[in-house]
Amino acid sequence: MPRTLIITNDFPPRAGGIESFVHELALRRADSVVVYCSSPTRRDDAADPGFDLRQPFPIVRDAARVLLPTPRVAARARAIVGLEHCDSVLYGAAAPLGLLAAGLRGRVRRQVALTHGHETGWSGLPGAREALRRVGETTDAVTYLGDYTRRRLARALSAPAAARMRHLPPGVDTDRFHPGAGGTEIRARHGLGGRPVVVCVSRLVPRKGQDTLLRAWPRVLADVPDAALLIVGDGPYADRLRAAARDTESVVFTGPVPADELPAHHDAADVFAMPCRTRRGGLDVEGLGMVYLEASATGVPVVAGDSGGAPDAVLDGETGLVVDGSRPGPTARALIGLLRDPDRAAQMGARGREWVSRDWTWDRAARTLDELLTAP
């Protein structure tokens, strides 16, 4: 049976939205994929040392921590294509690994490049924009997450490549993310009891807006004195965020948590909040925000920042609220409104669960990918 080679830097046990996206797509083609990816960090290995062995498809790990479109990586990709009888290639992220496509033309029948948020940054940079254009010209399709990313990417691609773009957003496993997924245990673990709880699940980096949450938090406490903020995740911004929250006992940092505990952390929330913001003149932007969809699937209303494609993951006023993530005031007002009106919050959570269950399924994403990889 012909196989698809997935070439990616973003793959578990490394944690992240792109990693989950690529892994879920691989699982739905488990009998016909081979994954070629970079090596995990020591921290990732420690978190799940047996990950590769449990997968229902072969994984080829490169020794490098980051794969780049070098002659060595290109040669290894060609070797895997031949040994595994691959007739198609899926690039887990178009930038930069989609640049390998030129060297694989004629060796495989179809090549598809996924895009996320960082490719929109590439689309605005001289040099990177031209590289993205080459990816579009040497692959058979470039995917996009939503209207925002489509518009940004289309400006960088040639007209024929832009015409071949296809909508391929992620899905959510609503069997994993559901109301009652274990939030009571998470609340007990952190001594939160029945307090109103705001949860943020994300990498701790400036774009995600945890600092905006911390700046908004005194205003929230003034109106909801018993509220608690649970910040879930890890990243290079961790020390600065912990320092900023040092004077309050209502903020809890969990550090990194296992992937199988993420639904429970969402379920611990009365409100999910990640007030992301665009940085560096549009180069650092949110592509979509799977965490909003996962929170909605868990029946939790969301407060989202207005960065890039994040509003595509929220029905503003129905499943949550979209705010200016660069300022604490709008975030504080949104959180106070939802925490003080639990009936409205519950209605938004229920609407979010309904919306995600209908329109954001992995089966739909897998069908789209199958069409792209098998097209004549």
UniProtKB/TrEMBL annotation:
Residues 185-355 form the Glycosyl transferase family domain. It is an enzyme of class 2 (transferase). One of its GO terms (biological process) is carbohydrate derivative biosynthetic process. InterPro entries: Glyco_trans_1, Glyco_trans_4-like_N, Glycosyltransferase_grp1. GO terms for molecular function: hexosyltransferase activity. Residues 16-176 form the Glycosyltransferase subfamily 4-like N-terminal domain. Keywords: Glycosyltransferase, Transferase. Its EC number is 2.4.1.-. Transmembrane segments: none annotated. The keyword Lyase does not apply. This is Phosphatidylinositol alpha-1,6-mannosyltransferase. It comes from Nocardiopsis aegyptia.
